Amino acid sequence: MNLLDRYIHEVGRHLPRKSRSDIQAELRSSFVDTLEDRFGQDASEEQTSELLKEFGQPRDIAASYHPQSQYLIGPTLYPIFRMVIWIVIAAVLGAQILAWGIGIFVDGDAFSVWETLASLVASVPASLGWVIITFMILQYFDAKPDLENQPWDPTMLPEIDTDQEIKRGELIVGLVFGTLILALITLFPQWVGFITFPGGNFYPNPVILDYLVLIQVSLLATILMNIYLFWKGSWTFLTRMIKLGLDAFGVVILAFLIQGHNAWLAANGSTSFTISISLIESNNWELVGMHAFRLAFVVAFIVTIIEIFATIYRMVRSKMASNISAKDFVLKVE
After folding, report:
1. CA atoms of 75 and 71, how far apart (whole Å)
2. N or C: which end of the chain has fewer CB atoms below 10 A?
3. pLDDT, tens digit, for every residue of 57-67?
């Protein structure tokens, strides 16, 4: 039943998490009953594939379970529409946060709560409205992804490997905030630093400015890889290797930043690693801020190292699993 498992798993990828297990169990029971009625309990892989072709593509099967969400957008476009909607919401919220931060730096005064809410009320529905109108037009002209025009072959279903699946939510957050940070440090490098409080003194961070080009390259490469992963839909050995390289590059940059902050703090008479109470009481906020930046980079350095080892572990486990599957296949053939 390996082919059926892959089919049920693929259907589940397009189902709401809340009802996924129940629908998969119902679909499996229906398919097994139909398969046994037609071919008996010892149905072959070819017979299973033949019946799966009659059932239809996993995306279409999943779409049939939640038609209430698709009055304006059809089953074919709805999964793409839902993905784009979340990206737009995240991008609009991120842009509002960026605008709020710029307002603090430039005017020295934060926007009021009502102004911020009014801006969100105006921008979010307007952005979502244009997305809906765009997809309504695509639906009207019966636009379909290229995959829908290709013959449906159950044997081409991907193997079940949860380690290879991407987490779209994490990618969306990474894309939105990565793009915003890249735009901020590229368009407004003079604002790279910290402020004591709204309207207070602004202190630029000279260490970050020294390594600004390396940070921009790292962010841009990570954004491009996340876009490719979003389009691809799953991890591969190559993308894992690229991520390892990007993480290693990030570790080098973080090491430079930590060392640069150490040198700056030492040159300004602060040799302790932690932020002491006396330093805060002295109201030397520039030193406090540089200490805080260094601490943040140390934490990021440790987290990135852990992520590198986690990626290596996933690659090794996936490789071992594929080798075991290959051996099982050889034994069955023999």
Report:
1. 9
2. C
3. 887 788 777 65
